[in-house]
User: Fold this.
Amino acid sequence: MNALLHPAGRRLEPLRVEDLDALLAIEVQAYEFPWTRGNFIDSLAAGHVACWLREGNGPMIGYFLAMRGVEEMHLLNLTVSPSQQGRGHAVWMLDRLCEMARGEGAAQLWLEVRPSNQRARRLYERYGFAEVGLRRGYYPAARGLREDALVMSLPL
Ligand SMILES: CC(C)(COP(=O)(O)OP(=O)(O)OC[C@H]1O[C@@H](n2cnc3c(N)ncnc32)[C@H](O)[C@@H]1OP(=O)(O)O)[C@@H](O)C(=O)NCCC(=O)NCCS
Assistant:
């Protein structure tokens, strides 16, 4: 088999503190207002769902973190390395998260997204999420301002 035509399959690894250097290298490229190392450490300490994506034994391509609720899951962070975007990695990670959430009895998946983040909004809308609300001034923005968050939800 030609490894280029048939790339190694995608795999998820559990995120650990040791993985945070690789993760943060992606996070700071992907966002104008990235999470800090402390944000990720807090998420790990809280026991949230936290996974990273690779192909075969390759380097980190992306990751997601999600918080469990009562019969619901809340997506906190979904990121694909800028050089790897547009190849279906985010859709694949969403598929895995939905499977996990359903397996734990969740009926709804929630997330927030910046109204200005057209790429992510299009992905979530196509995936089946519906806009269900707005959180005013939820995100930091340029010049010390704040940006609202759209709240989106997907029935599982
Ligand atoms: C938003 C984000 C996670 C999307 O990741 P991605 O891996 O590029 O997304 P996907 O490839 O799964 O889907 C995106 C597009 O690729 C298309 N696609 C899906 N599978 C594909 C495939 N096998 N081959 C080519 N394109 C594909 C999708 O239809 C979609 O099309 P569009 O560009 O016309 O919308 C990524 O852009 C990112 O990390 N952005 C910065 C961080 C961020 O904003 N995260 C979300 C915060 S709420």
Observations:
- The radius of gyration is 16 Å.
- The chain has one domain: 10-155.
- Helices lie at 20-30, 37-45, 89-103, 118-127.
